[in-house]
Structures are given as structure tokens and as C-alpha cells.
Amino acid sequence: MFNIKNTRKALALVGIVGIFAFAAGSTFAADTDTTWQKDHPRREQVNNRLANQNKRIKNEVKAGDITTAQAKSLHKDDRQIRQEERDMASQNGGHITKGEQKVLNQQENATSKQIGK
Predict the structure, then answer these.
(1) Which helix (H) or strand (E) holds 33?
(2) How far apart (Å, rounded) are the C-alpha atoms in residues 109 and 71?
(3) Each residue's pLDDT tens digit, 27-63
(4) What is the Cα–Cα distance from 106 to 117, expressed in whole angstroms?
(5) Which of 47, 54, 59, 66 is the most exposed place for a label (fewest CB within 10 A)?
(6) Cβ-based neighbours of 65, under 8 Å, separated by 6 or more
(7) Predicted structure pTM score
(8) For residue range 53-63, what is the model confidence (pLDDT) as tens digits?
């Protein structure tokens, strides 16, 4: 028959198992990110700059320093740089060369100068 005490115990057990499963998954994801970052430092640097520029664009819109149309154009530029980074990496076993990183950084510099104008 249905027993409230056993149901509560079962629910508590399911909750505990869920917490451990989530923690294990989070740890694995963190380890994967760290390994990826260590194995692809040039790509990480490029992508960190793109993420920073994305934040800057959002802040400039909030502050009213640029219009949403300008932000849309800047985001489009950043997406194109990100796609180019992925294309370059796919041609070199997941890595980008120093020269490719330099080209991507120059493109990011050009976009960066447009933020907040």
C-alpha cells in the first residue's frame, strides 16, 4: 500500500542522487573547459576578446551611447570574426596559427574602435 514515510525517503534519495549527478557533470564540464583552453590558447584569447566586445556593445546600448542598429552591425562583425576563427581552426586540426590569431585580432581591433563612437 501507499506509505508516506517511504515516499518521502524515496524522494529524498532521488534528490540526493540528482545533486551528485549534477555536481559530477559540472566538474567534468569545468575540466573539459580547462583542457580545451590549455590546448587552444590562441583560440581562447580570440574568443575571450569577442566575449568582452559583446559585453561592451551591450553596455553601450544600455548607456544610450550607440543605437540598437549600430549594435546589430557590430554583433554581425563579431559573428563573422568568430566564424572565420572556426573556419581557420577546422583547417588546422582545431588550432589557429600565430599569423591567423594576428589577423583575427586586427579585425577585432577594427570592430573595437567602432564601439562607443
Answers:
(1) helix 4-39
(2) 16
(3) 445 555 667 567 789 999 999 999 999 999 999 999 9
(4) 18
(5) 59
(6) 116
(7) 0.67
(8) 999 999 999 99
